[in-house]
Amino acid sequence: MTGKLVDNIMQFARILRGAGLPVGPGQVIEVLRAVQQVGIGNRDDFYWALFATCVTRIEQKPLFDQAFHIFWRNPKLRERLMQMLLPQLQSETEPQKGQPVATRLAEALSSGSQPEAAPEREEITVDASLTWSDRELLQDKDFDQMTMAELRQTRALIAALRFAFPEVRTRRFRPDQAGRRADQRATMRATLRSGGDLVPLRFRTARWQPPPLVVLCDISGSMGRYSRLLLHFVHALTNDRSRVSTFLFGTRLTNITRALRHRDVDVAVAQAAAQVTDWSGGTRIGQCLHEFNRLWSRRVLGQGAIVLLISDGLDKDAGVNLAQEAERLSMSCRRLIWLNPLLRFEGFAPKSLGIRAILPYVDELRPVHNLTSLIDLGKALSRPMAPRGARRTAKLQEAA
Question: Closest Cα to residue 258, out of 267, 248, 266, 246?
Fold first, then answer.
């Protein structure tokens, strides 16, 4: 095996590691052994040799395929980056034609063009207090004012967020000998097993579980960077708990629940964006809520669901039929929380017709413009809920 090929394989492993795949030194050694066995005469054999040694989970395959077909098409970085600007890679052997290049793969390619030079030895003192200070500043910074580097760091912090939803009582039961309700069916089965001489009583208790979560996110032009970044937040929620349904709306409603279930956030966001045809357009909130209430509310709002409505309330139709649809949505769920980025302004007042139409029917009105607002949302969701009437009265007084 020539030295040039070894260097390219090590560079390829470095790019995979930078893109997020756990390719360590041990796997690089296995790659070299596998390539030495299969040779480089057949491209498919070479591909599967690298695949078998670098990929450990099936969801890593799209990222590996993109990296392989970009890097081994032409190892020169400049030409690879020019190819990334094309709409799709024209190659007959590509299994996923037209799939967008993952963001972190592009970053790994751009930063991994040359082998890293060995740095000079010097003593470096790390001040942990400065790191914590930077994180605190990042938590309070508006999403719309962040640089690209800060956005990448914010997405990583959002992926690490965990929310503790309070469990609610369902109409189903589970076996529990300490329960107060007799389980007649289980008792009869136990009696038949004992031959009828004994009547062993069986009991059951109510089953408790976190309620379903439904997210309705505005993707109109006025939401801008907020909606794109909040998709990472919704992806973290979807992968952290079950029964999460997500809908995007602008001038029409799009269900992206299945796309966000992919564990890789880059692939999930890309698939969700591919389904949407009205991104950064106008907003017809009333029409979209009407479509949701008519087609989806009975399917996803059962068992006391919590609804997160993410929107600035700026409606193109000036609130036509919006009050009726917001009232119906509110009556169909246990808790309707409106996340509005306009609340970041101290002088915010509900003056637009859309905001005034929705406001009477939401249980909580909260800001969503930085990491602190998302952390506060998690704390609010973990607290027990007050009666709906008291919540709405307090909310209207704060808005006034």
Answer: 246
